[in-house]
Amino acid sequence: MSDDLKVKVLYVSAELFPLLKTGGLADVSAALPPALAAQGADVRLLLPAFPSVQAGVTPSGPALPLPAGRDVHHHHHTATHTAWPGWVHSLPAGLGPLAHTADGTAPWLQAGHITASGQPVWLLHAPGLYEQGQHPYHDDNGHAWANSAARFAWLGWAAALLGLGLDSAWTPDVVHGHDWHTGLGLAYLHHLGAHAHLPRPATVFTIHNLAYQGVFGPDVRTPLGLPATLFHMHGLEYHGNVSFMKAGLVFSDAITTVSPTYAREITRPEQGCGLDGVLRHRQPVLHGILNGVDDTVWNPATDPLVQPGYSADDLSGKAQAKARLQQRMGLQARPGALLCCVVSRLTSQKGLHLLPEVVDDLVASGGQLAVLGTGDQAIVQALQEAQRRHPDSVALHVGYDEALAHQLIGGADMILVPSQFEPCGLTQLYGLRYGTLPLVRAVGGLADTVTDCTLENIDDGSATGVVFGELSAWGLRTALRRALALHRRPADWQTVQRNAMRQHFDWASAARAYLGIYRNLLARPLHTRPGSLSN
Ligand code: ADP
């Protein structure tokens, strides 16, 4: 660790709220670095310069040219490269052509800070890689970008270079990568560190969703400069392909995921997405740390999108938010109806293929449903049909809308999260905070954060929502019947609501847990760190 005892952390992510968000990863990347900094860590972000990210960053320091991976034979004749330390020249060649434009513009790192928050950041510019389209992972038709592997190999490579001292004024003690987009960085770091006999930083890899793995055909090996010493069963090879996720799992010193239950689930075949064997092997260094709620964004008392605000002591503002929401979504103004909402990617991961099957029963029992989301066309169509059948009671807004998400979570009585699997889940945490009772399936972070409203749990003040087990229309329907029954008992409903609003999932606790992991790794000499399977 560095002399000044402030742990220097390079936080590597593809997404950052509010600049670029496709899911919970963006929320975490906005909240965790400041929470770590508040506890004394020196954190810098490393982000690809996607257009919306670049627009939110103010340059504030030097730009570092990135030596592109080049043919080792070549550089001996290229005088301009002599400024780079020797280990850079030993990089596996082949990445360069992917990120160089036709006119030879090379990638570079721009130092800056997030304009809105002041957070220090390195922006990775790679001409031709990050400018295309709105979405970081796929085109408008939902097809993964053809250059996906290169996009995130570059991110990883930049992380590895910074980790090994590219910026001599700020060399991180810890490189902390998030999801498959950063996995290759830990492999490069491992490989380059060993190759150059350099001390390398400790590495932590966080799984936000194991289902997205970044698997590419073996033909990417050469262009991405992945030597045989990395490409094998105990490395980043996955059934003959290159897996960025597996690279992160194998070549990191510690692995975390976003809830204790998910940390256990992914070591078993049902939820292991084909990597449960790797994760069982790495179980001694696998930790589950729950995400928190960013109080500056999600707080019913201060939320500008839900005014007048409300609290557990005075819920009158919530009744007004409900009336406004019914009006905005075109639902019948019925103060007494159980108004359920969904704010989600509309996918079977979220269990939302079950929703169309139970809508008619919910409506027949006097309930209402308001959905905000994008995703599977089949789910969208089935919900549109439900809306046509029940225009007064079912409303659907297809799209991504941050403001409407706040209005739904503020105004609804209940938020439905019947996920098939759920690493942590954030919307149930927002629901708790807003007194919008979560109805969840008992998996992953949902199981860790919501307590079922059984009689005894209501009695002892621990009930915070409705929890069910079976992933089926029957399971969801039964849970909704229990929700309706609780809602017909206003005093009990309010008790559960107040319990829910008293829960605190804060980023300070999460940051303490991450810092504990960093310190633990840094307390050991490099050669005794857990390291990879291939040590
Ligand atoms: P995941 O990351 O699997 O999509 P999470 O619950 O961890 O699920 O995070 C989802 C985040 O995205 C939450 O902040 C949620 O409010 C937000 N979100 C999801 N869909 C939409 C949408 N259509 N409009 C606005 N926000 C959305």
Give the key terms.
single chain, 535 residues, alpha/beta, nine-stranded mixed sheet, 20 helices, elongated, binds adenosine-5'-diphosphate
Give the CA-CA distance, first to last residue. Answer: 22 Å
Shape: elongated
Strand content: 15-25%
Largest sheet: 9 strands, mixed
The radius of gyration is 24 Å
Average predicted local confidence, pLDDT: 91
The spatial strand order of the largest sheet comes to 3-4-5-2-1-6-7-11-12
The secondary structure category is: alpha/beta
What percent of the residues sit in helical stretches (DSSP H or I)? 25-40%
Please tally the β strands and state the result. Answer: 18
Bound molecules: adenosine-5'-diphosphate
Poorly predicted regions are 69-84, 527-535
Report what the structure shows.
Helices cover 35% and strands 17% of the residues. With 535 residues, it is α/β, with parallel strands linked by helices. Helix 11 crosses helix 14. The chain is elongated, with a radius of gyration of 24 Å. The structure holds adenosine-5'-diphosphate (ADP). Adenosine-5'-diphosphate binds at residues 23-24, 27, 209, 343-345, 372-374, 400-402, 405, 424-427.
Map the helices and strands:
Layout: E1 8-12, H1 24-38, E2 42-48, H2 51-55, E3 57-65, H3 72-75, H4 86-89, H5 96-99, E4 108-114, E5 120-125, H6 148-163, E6 174-178, H7 183-196, E7 202-207, E8 215-216, E9 237-238, E10 241-243, H8 244-250, E11 254-257, H9 260-265, H10 276-281, E12 286-288, H11 316-328, E13 339-346, H12 355-364, E14 368-375, H13 377-389, E15 394-398, H14 402-411, E16 414-417, H15 427-433, E17 437-441, H16 444-449, H17 455-459, E18 466-468, H18 473-487, H19 490-502, H20 507-522
Parallel strand pairs: 1-2, 1-6, 2-5, 6-7, 7-11, 11-12, 13-14, 13-16, 14-15, 16-17, 17-18
Antiparallel strand pairs: 3-4, 4-5, 8-10, 9-10
Helix pairs in contact: 1-20, 6-7, 7-8, 11-14, 12-13, 12-18
Bound molecules: adenosine-5'-diphosphate (ADP).
